[in-house]
Amino acid sequence: MMDTRFSAAIHALILIAASETPMTSEQIAESVGTNASYIRKLTRLMKRQGIIASRRGVSGFALLIPPEKLPLRKIYEAVEETERIHVFDLHQNPNDRCIVGRYIRPVLSDVFREIEEKAEQALTHTTLADCMQKMKTEIKQEGKL
Amino acid sequence: MMDTRFSAAIHALILIAASETPMTSEQIAESVGTNASYIRKLTRLMKRQGIIASRRGVSGFALLIPPEKLPLRKIYEAVEETERIHVFDLHQNPNDRCIVGRYIRPVLSDVFREIEEKAEQALTHTTLADCMQKMKTEIKQEGKL
Q1: Could you give the domains of chain A?
Q2: Cβ contact B100–A144 (<8 Å)
Q3: Which residues does chain B have within 8 Å of residue A23's beta carbon, measured at their own beta carbons?
Q4: Contact A89/B7, CB-based, under 8 Å?
C-alpha cells in the first residue's frame, strides 16, 4: 500500500514556504494533485505539531518554523502519527520449542531497530530548506528559471 | 502487507550456521513457523547468491560464507530480490503546471534515496555473526542456558 502523506506534506510545506501570498487548501491540493479534504487532513496534523498555523484574517497557512530549522523528521512524525520509521517486518510464528525460534524475534527486533534508527537520524539531519535548495538547483540545471 | 522473507531468512541462516547436523527445509520450516515450500523458496534464492549450498550426499544446507563475513545486506538482496531498501513513497500526480509540482518528484526521490542509503549502509555493516552474538547475549541474560 502506498503511503504518500509524507511526500505530499513536504510538497505542501514548500508551497507554503515559497509562496508570497497565503495558499489555501484548494490551491495546495491543485499543485499536489489531490483533493482539498486530504490537504486539510495533513494541515490539521501539522498544525497540531506547531509546524504551521492558519493565518489570521486571511485564508491560508503560515510556516511557524523557518525551513532551515524544520527537520523532515518532524514533518514525518506529524503526518504519519508515529515517531518510528518502520522498514522491516518480523515473521509472526517462530516456534518457541526451538531455542533459535524462542529468541529470534527480540534479537531481530533490536537489530532492525538499530538500522531503522539510522534512517531516523538522517531524517533528523535533513531540513525543509535542504529540499528547497535542491529544488532550486534542479530548476537552474534545467534552465527553466 | 507484511514482508517477512528477510526476517525468516535470517532465522533459517542462524539455524544452518549453529546446527551441528545439517538441517532440512522441513526442520527449518518447523522452527521458523512456516511450511517447507516457503523455506525452499528462500533457500533457492540464497543458493543463487552463493550464500548457502546443498550438502553433498546428505539432505540439508551449508553456509558458504562465514557468519562474520556475511552482511545482512547480502541476505536482504538475495531474498527480497532488490538492491534497494524502499522506505518512502512519492505522491503520484503532482501538477506540472506548477513549478513546485514539476520538480517535487525528482527532488524528493533524491532526498529519500539518501536517507534509504543510510539504512542500506547500516545493513552492510551488520553481519549474521552480530545477530548470533546478540542471540547468545539474550539467552545468557534470561539464564536459559
Answers
A1: 5-141 (1.10.10.10)
A2: no
A3: none
A4: yes
